[in-house]
Amino acid sequence: MSADYHMDDESPRRAYDARLMRRLLGYVRPYRRWLVAATLLLIVVSVISNIAPLLIMWSVDHYINNPDRTGLRAADDAAVSDALAGQVAADMAGLLRIVALLAGFMILEAALRYVQMIIVALVGQRTLMTMRLDIFDHLQRLSLRFLDRNPVGRLMTRVTNDVEKIQETVVSGMVQVVNDLLTIVVVLGFMIAINWRLAVIVVAPVPIVFATSLIFRKYAQRSFLEVRRKIAHLNACLQENISGMRVVQMFRREDANYAEYRRRNADHRNEWLRQIRNFAIYFPVVEFLGMLATALILAYCGWVILATGREVSGTASVGTIFAFVFLAEKFFSPIRALADRYNLLLEAMASSERVFRLLDTPPDIEDKPNPKPCEALRGDVEFREVWFAYEPGQWVLKNISMRIAPGERIAIVGHTGAGKTTLINLLNRFYDVQQGAILLDGVDIRDYPQVALRRKIGMVLQDVFLFSGTIEENIRLGDDAMPMDHVRACARHVNAAAFIEKLPGGYGYHVGERGCNLSTGQRQLLAFARTLAHDPSILVLDEATSSIDTETEALIQDAIAKLMAGRTSIVIAHRLSTVQHADLIIVMHHGEVRESGTHQELLAKGGIYRTLYELQYRDAAGQDAATPE
Amino acid sequence: MTGRAERADAAEHSRDSGKALHGRPFLSLLRYNLPYWPRYLGGAMLAMMFVGVGLVVPLVIRGIVRAFETGTMTRQLLALYFLGLLLIAAAEGVARYFQRTLMIGASRHFEFDLRNDYFRHVQRLSQRFFHCNQTGDIMARAVNDLNYARDFIGPGIMGTVDMIRLPATLGMMIYLSGRLTLVALVPLPFISIAVYFFVRYMNRQSKVVQDLFSALTARVQENLAGARVVKAYGIADREMRAFRKACEAYMRENIKLVAVMSFAWPLIGMVIGAAVLTVVWYGGGMVIHGDLTLADLTAFLICMVMLAFPMAQFGWVITLYQRGAVGMNRIAEILCAVPDIRDEPDALQEAAITRGEIQFDHAHFAYNGVAVLHDLCFTIRAGETVAIVGPTGSGKSTVIALIAREYDVSGGRVLIDGFDIRSIPLRTLRRAMGYVPQDPFVFSDSVRENIRLGKPDASDAAIRAACETAQFSADLEEMPAGLDTLLGERGVNLSGGQKQRLTLARAILCDPVILMLDDALSSVDTHTEERILEGLREVMATRTSIIVSHRVSTVRHADRILVLDDGRIVEQGTHDELLALDGLYAHMHRRQLLERALESEA
Lengths: 629, 602
Ligand SMILES: Nc1ncnc2c1ncn2[C@@H]1O[C@H](COP(=O)(O)OP(=O)(O)OP(=O)(O)O)[C@@H](O)[C@H]1O
Ligand SMILES: Nc1ncnc2c1ncn2[C@@H]1O[C@H](COP(=O)(O)OP(=O)(O)OP(=O)(O)O)[C@@H](O)[C@H]1O
Ligand SMILES: [Mg+2]
Ligand SMILES: [Mg+2]
Description:
The structure holds 2 protein chains of 2 kinds.
Chain A: H1 18-28, H2 32-64, H3 67-74, H4 78-141, H5 144-148, H6 152-194, H7 196-203, H8 206-243, H9 245-250, H10 254-308, H11 318-360, E1 381-389, E2 395-404, E3 409-414, H12 420-427, E4 435-440, E5 443-444, H13 450-456, E6 457-460, E7 469-470, H14 471-476, H15 484-493, H16 497-502, E8 510-511, H17 520-533, E9 538-542, H18 550-563, E10 568-572, H19 576-579, E11 584-589, E12 592-597, H20 599-605, H21 608-626
Parallel strand pairs in A: 3-10, 3-11, 6-9, 9-10
Antiparallel strand pairs in A: 1-2, 1-4, 4-5, 7-8, 11-12
Helix pairs in contact in A: 2-4, 2-6, 2-11, 3-4, 4-6, 6-7, 6-8, 6-11, 7-10, 8-10, 8-11, 10-11, 15-17
Chain B: H1 3-16, H2 25-33, H3 37-70, H4 75-124, H5 127-132, H6 135-162, H7 165-176, H8 178-184, H9 188-225, H10 227-232, H11 236-288, H12 294-335, E1 358-367, E2 370-380, E3 385-389, H13 396-403, E4 411-416, E5 419-420, H14 426-431, E6 433-436, H15 447-451, H16 460-469, H17 473-478, H18 496-509, E7 514-518, H19 526-541, E8 544-548, H20 552-555, E9 560-565, E10 568-573, H21 575-581, H22 584-601
Parallel strand pairs in B: 3-8, 3-9, 6-7, 7-8
Antiparallel strand pairs in B: 1-2, 1-4, 4-5, 9-10
Helix pairs in contact in B: 2-12, 3-4, 3-7, 3-12, 4-6, 6-9, 6-12, 7-8, 7-12, 8-11, 9-11, 9-12, 11-12, 16-18, 21-22
């Protein structure tokens, strides 16, 4: 299964791209006030959380390791001992003050952090919902030409998983990055304020972190794009197998299809294993650089102390060393976090690239800027020299011209594959013609808004598709305003009421996916009923009764004749009995209109129609002969 | 009982027999992890190693501070400490590299295995299952829930292993000062209580969220699959509304989950902070009173800082575990669904289908409690061609589905060549069948692969011969790449009749003992139908064949015609016998005849 009918999923190019980021930011823009608030909160949180080590340092130097006390302890007499006790008490009180202060800060920090996280979560969820809705909306707009060539499983992956991937990263990531950067700046500020030389030392390994990240990115981003592509393929394979499981089982394809799935699965896994190696190198390197900073500080301080002698310990007091070891940790943990987020960002970028590429696919069937209103249609249909091909160069319809007067009943017959379905697919703009035009009431259908046009044309498609939901929902198709009586009446017209009422729950019977728990004929009846329920100006039936018994069919025919009186209808059928009463019969052959006329005219002409007819007639005659009566 | 409730019932029924794993996700996770125990062991050992090595860091720092305090520091010693620190960091890095590749790698292998097994299992499930479970839902489990499970297995377990830091660091703290350690542990009970409640809530809420995500996926899936209908009725806006609703529900519940989860972080952070403060205060006091050296306090505080990270990680691991557990549960729901059609343990491995005699022995059948076939008794002799006719919904397809054992009878028996169908291994049974279902299904693959689906080693000549019989050759010739022409999902680039004839060719190519055509010529014009029937006559002469159709012209040459009405056989016999009977069939015949007569008069 190496070759694929489907659109090439494009091999990966760049993952991260300022353009992508800008677009992602565009989704966040409506919430920028909230995000600014969240960021401000974070700044406060950052400052508070970094005051802690300072205060601890202060308390070490002034209370815990109070040099006065050390001096007192050295001396050894009662007065001094009293003084020592006093000093101890004073130091303890000082320490307690600081601890109380710290506790206050801590509570404040927790509260602010919570508020900030909630804001971020809300914004993140909303943003991603917007994105998900955008994709879904865009998918609704894309033409069948696109949908035909993109497996459902792959497209699904974008709406669900790719968005989920972005959700996990982008919004929370953005604020976190701001937080991390802020923390870095704040800590750096503190460090410089305390001792700029030490600060320089701590910062020294940072360029190496950068360099490492750049190298890492080169390998990682490619992998991420590949991973996203492979998971989409894997999902498409799964989706197809689930929907065709019946055939898979019937033809004992389990092993072969499993092998195929397994192969794709292994592809996906191997790509990840590659990626894991990339990470496994990257993270420890960043980690190591953090430790390097700590070691450098200790060494430097030690070196200074040794060089200048212990007396001049003001340069780097023990408290300072202490604070710096803390600060170095504080400084590197956001850097580590940034590294972590960077990889998530790369992954999210791979996803957003796929999402945006989908959003950038222009729908090739679009409404004109100022579409003509399409309210009351008379139903005058004209095909004017229509040429159409699914694949460039392979004409499926060749120079089709025909005219259907308002209220006329026309039939299209022809061998299978002649292009009948294609013809009506063009009528409601599933596809656009390549040459010529289709006119409705004298106006090119491309001048009408698509939705309005399609609502006017009631079509019973050859491949029946029902949604999972109740029978009623399937007839209404979301039109809540439709009275229940109308639903019932339509079901009665097509003779579906009889079977529906027998089902447990009647109109509330739950139809499975694609109508799997109904018989094929029942599905067709339901599709028929739903088309009638929407009261179309033009009725198009593509083999709408092919799986229905003749008895029911005859009843439906009568009902339709009454219901559609005065309205244009187009019927495609193989059973000539279905079409013979049409005002006009069009015989299609290899994408061309071969013959057209009424039943009698065509019989008189002696062409394809007559051959088809005679086949049935002879059959009937043969039966006549065989009838013992 | 409403349809919905019934559906839920059926779903329940098909799942509950395998409750063993369900509800105990940890066990099922374990089962999939077992093969990778060396990796986990290696990872754990490495973790222990770098935790051990990492513990040296506070000691080194203590050494440095102490050396200064006592004035014994020299340059050599300082250099030694410096190099020591770097060495420790390097060792830790190397250990981490291997730990990561081992453990995260294991999670990818786990994912691979589980995904394969999931697919394999879904393949074994019967139609009944697929009717109760939406494709989108089955997929969401394989994609989304599996990811959650994997995230626990990989980063989650790694994080857990990393938590050996906790006891190790604790040991170090005790070594430094037992009293201080005790003080530092005061907030522990609070953490435990908080964690307990969070976990409980998250478990419930994650399930809600993940179920909603499934619903979302199913919506998208169905919308895309039904794109033609959505467009034809211009209902994209309604679909959009429904989707928005699903998205909003998902978002709402997700925000609830996040709100509580977000609360967990600052809380845990606060508790840790409280511990640090207690230590500063109490430990500081001890130093002031001269009960503790400054160096010890420093080392102790560094230990606590080292603790802060695994503690925060603990919260993270719990989240991962929760989601993973819910995901695993949801996967287990499917993995535990027992296929209701499967080889029974007492299946006769030697059973062979050679003649193709089919017998319905008082067979009853009901879909979810709704009786569809009532007490069917008939025999189709080996080599006979039998047609089944009857009104829409009378049960024709169901009869065929029973012969193919897509369902099991609810009463009575179906026998093939004298064997109860349930005692014949499924593979044997299905190899004997050539089945054209009523709605043709085509895979997105080449025409060749699609036709030789049941016989992967068929030669092109054989394929072409089958196409000839199915009258598919002319279409094939018009296709740009002939047999290599690639087809889209569900054969979107074929016409209705082409799809039917392709599936017909597929069945013919299998050269089955029993050929079953379920209304397989409904989308084919009369001209083509006539020629197909002519070709089929030869094919059917040598095997048992069953033809379902609504057209008298298709069935009248059958050896025998069964007329089904409302799940009962109301008439049977040859065309002529049935006409003589003047029942349902004769009526149907007259109706078609009448039309013809009208036509000829015109
Ligand atoms: N989406 C598509 N992409 C490419 N080719 C297509 C597509 N749909 C149909 N075709 C091809 O166009 C031709 C005409 O198909 P069409 O469905 O119009 O036939 P039809 O007259 O409706 O036949 P039937 O009676 O079997 O339904 C066929 O050869 C078919 O293979
Ligand atoms: N999966 C299912 N679950 C529940 N009920 C079902 C299911 N499949 C079919 N039915 C019901 O069983 C009855 C018989 O269905 P069946 O498909 O056998 O009819 P049929 O004779 O093949 O009809 P048609 O001519 O329309 O193909 C119908 O009333 C149908 O609604
Ligand atoms: Mg067609
Ligand atoms: Mg049927």
